[in-house]
Amino acid sequence: MSKFEYDESLQLKILTEDQVKEMHETALHVLENLGIIFAYDEALDILEKAGCTVDRETQKVKFPRDLVEKCIKSAPASFDLYDREGNFYCTFGDGKTRFNPGSSASNVLESDGETVRLSGVKDLKLLTKVAQSLPHIDFVSSSIVCEEAPGELGSQYLYYTEMQNSTKPIIGGSTDVEGVPRTFKLLKAVLGSEENVRKKPYTIFDICVTSPLKWSHIGARNIVDCVKMDIPIELISAQIAGATGPITLAGCILEHTVELLAGLVLIQVIKPGHPVVYGGAPCIFNMKTMYTPMEAMECSMVTAGYAQMGKYYGLPTHTYAVMSDSKYIDYQAGSESARSGLMAMLAGIDNVSGAGGLNVIAEMSIEKIVIDNDYIGTLKHLEKGIRFDEEALAADLMLKVGSGGNFLNQKHTLKNYKKEQNYSNITMNYEERATWNKEGSWSVSDKARAYVENIASQDICPLGEERTKALNEAFVEVCLEAGLTKETAEDLMKKYNEA
User: Fold this and answer.
1) Where are the beta strands (DSSP E) in 23-76?
2) Nearest CA-CA partner of 495 in 120, 151, 110
3) Measuring CA to CA, which residue among 348, 300, 356, 305 is closest to residue 326?
4) Which of 172, 326, 443, 467 is an S-S bond match for 333, by CB 3.0 to 4.6 Å?
5) Cα-flanking dihedrals φ and ψ of residue 247, to 5°?
6) Half-sphere exposure of 462 (CA within 13 A, CB side)
7) First CA to last CA across the chain, in angstroms?
8) How far apart are CA 278 and CA 207, in angstroms?
């Protein structure tokens, strides 16, 4: 992917070429004249050595234009990801849109579609197994904040659970200062060596800026640690338009650009070429309800705008979509999930987080992930485009069948129908009513619920005795480092096994 070139590919463009360039120039002006806070001394040392102007008292860093553009050029357009077994999984940034469940939900909507409760390790275990089984969910993620997990442990209990129930790459992160080195130990236990962790990346670390214009101590430290440990980074700005960001959408895109470029510079001056994803989770502040929707149309518009900036910089991109601010799996949930997912794919987003998410992603529905998987399958079918060759045009076949003929009995139909139509559906209803009634009149939610119940009884992809033992030992070590007791670690492992 080229750098500093307006992407002429077929995609949703909400900014003109001139606006993209003006946005870039304005972001450089802000970085050079206002700067951004980095609340971590080592980050300040690194940036000052690289040529930035650093005010130690305010922790504010100002960035010379040439350095910013040099760092944009050194950031790769794509990078390879591997699965839990060390096999090549995909090239992230290859032009395909991939999907994973939402992240960090504190609550779960139960299968009855009505009851909301605190999330637990049982939910994360099941959710990860379901995500592993679904063909259109590409990655698993730290979807649920297990109530059993002590605060001192950060997100390591989530990694511990996910690695035992899926082979797919993990979109994760950390909520604590020591999160990266502790997660590294868990990764090493599962992948077998430090070299495998470094050479065959199996996770991408989400790291969020604190809007407006501040990289916190935790965020900046996580960036430095990820680069040192060769873990790809997904930078995320989660600004709220009208609260932590300007009320104007153009202003939000500008702030997003400034925040992420500052983080990108820190990454690239430590190690040029380190993988970085240009991500975001835009919200708005609804002045009528005092609520912060993530799936209002304005959020998708901001996503489309910053996606253009990411493409201009030649970087892989990320956003949150295929989720809803609704509290139920209802019309609002379906329309918001569909619209945001389609817009994200048309904008050329490389990684979309959010499947299964409800209520500003504070809640997860495992059944919704199954339903979302079906919708994502239609998006991937659209992404393939229309095959255009001699066989697909079927001119000779039309001459053969002629006016008033029938294509059902042609070998061409039998040969091509699975190529041309999407048959990966699990829950959607595409039967006529009499057949639907005869088969039980199942709703979409009924089918999703049955699918989840079936997966719950299966052992999807066991880690194996030897690696499970190594992971358990590493988990105990991580717990002790976090200030917990061995008894607490053993109790957490017991709760996982009983889930």
Assistant:
1) 36-38, 53-55, 60-62
2) 120
3) 356
4) 326
5) -70, -25
6) 8
7) 45
8) 11
* Secondary structure (H, E, C), 280-323: ECCEECECCCCECCCCCHHHHHHHHHHHHHHHHCCCCEEEECCC
CA distances from residue 240 to 37, 287, 422 in whole angstroms, order as listed = 18, 12, 37
Crossing angle (nearest 10°) for helices 486-498 and 156-163: 40
Q: What is the pLDDT of residue 78?
A: 98
Cα gap 142→162, rounded to integer Å: 8
Whole-model pTM over 0.85: yes
Paired sense of beta strands 116-118 and 107-109, if any: antiparallel
For residue 151, CA distances in Å to 147, 155, 169 come to 9, 9, 25
Q: What pLDDT was estimated at residue 4? A: 85
Mean pLDDT across the chain? 96
Kindly state the tokens that stand for 36. Answer: 């951004």
Are 277 and 317 a contacting pair, CB within 8 Å? Answer: yes
How are the residues of the chain apportioned to helix, strand and coil, as percentages rounded to the nearest 5?
A: 45, 15, 40
Cα–Cα distance measured from residue 148 to residue 122, given in angstroms and rounded to the nearest whole number: 10
The interaxial angle of helices 465-481 and 156-163, nearest 10 deg, is 180
Which residues does 468 contact at the CB level (< 8 Å), separation at least 6?
164, 462
Token digits for 196?
A: 């495998």
Side-by-side strand order, sheet with 276-280 = 140-141, 170-173, 203-209, 233-237, 276-280
Beta carbons within 8 Å of 334's beta carbon, 6+ residues apart = 324
Q: What sign results for the dihedral spanned by CA atoms 343, 347, 352, 353?
A: negative
- Element at 333 (helix H, strand E): helix 331-346
pLDDT at res. 10: 61
* Token representation of residue 484: 């917990």
Helix ranges (H only) for 105-155 are 121-133
Q: Tokens for 145?
A: 């904040």
Low-confidence ranges of the chain (pLDDT < 70): 1, 6-10
Cα angle: 28, vertex 224, 148; to 5 degrees: 120
| Alpha carbons 453 and 217: distance in angstroms, whole number | 42
Half-sphere exposure of residue 300: CA atoms within 13 angstroms, side-chain side: 21
Q: Which pLDDT value is given to residue 9?
A: 66
Backbone dihedral angles phi then psi of residue 209, each to the nearest 5 degrees: -75, 150
261, amino acid identity? L
> Considering Cα of 256, then 259, then 261, then 267, what sign does the dihedral take?
negative
The predicted structure's pLDDT at residue 11: 78
Task: Read off the amino acid at residue 475.
Answer: F
CA 208 to chain centre: 13
Q: CA nearest 243: which of 292, 203, 173?
A: 292
If DSSP codes are grouped into helix, strand and coil, which group holds residue 499?
coil
